[in-house]
Amino acid sequence: MKRAIIFGATGGIGQAIATELAADGWSLYLHYSNQEQVASELADKLMSQFPEQDFIAIKLDFLASNMELQQFCQGLLPVNVAIFAQGITHYGFFGEQDLDNLEQEMKINLLTPLKLTRLLESNLLKYKHSRIIYLGSVYGGQASALESAYSASKAALTRFSQAYAREVAASGLTVNVLAPGAVDTPMNAIFSEDVLDEVKSEIPAGRLALGKDISFWVKNILKPESDYLTGQTIYITGGWLI
């Protein structure tokens, strides 16, 4: 069986992952929170390209209650891969952050992914070569001023994956974090061209990452030959910061 659920499938990295995995023979749940049209159009496009596979757009609010999360997981067809590509940040000084924004950020980036991992575990353990991949950040290793809470949430994913991977390693379920640096996605569109040019000048590779720079590693971690890789955080940064 090759069926994965991509949380945050409508984002720049999520869409790149979906496209890469579809071409590699995977059926996919394409999760969205608000962008129903984007998810539906992505599912339709992939279905037309790969008609022998299933592509299902599926909604879940990452601020949902525990009962709603349980009902969501119970309604899924079996999956042997869960990819968490969702995430938000609130840019600014920590001392000026709205408390509700802080809670939202930690829930979406950290707490709800952990809850979903807990709820999906029994299903994932049924299959060989099952995988969990979290999208972390270079800021989980080298924290960023003005993104303190975001940095904390991504660092926590690294430590959680290390611990949890040891609990399930004997079962064949692997748990890893992919930690991009600066990526050319809508999340970074808030910054001016001058700021982005300055960031590019600091990156040894001389450019922002593309979605395919991340999806390449997702595809390869999903291969059976990657069974021995677990508990790791792989930094995909073009040599920046790490």
From TrEMBL:
NCBIfam families (UniProt xref): EF_P_mod_YmfI
Family in the record: Belongs to the short-chain dehydrogenases/reductases (SDR) family.
GO terms (BP aspect): monocarboxylic acid metabolic process
One matching Pfam family: adh_short
Name of the protein described by the UniProt record: SDR family NAD(P)-dependent oxidoreductase
Family annotation (InterPro entries): NAD(P)-bd_dom_sf, Sc_DH/Rdtase_CS, SDR, SDR_fam
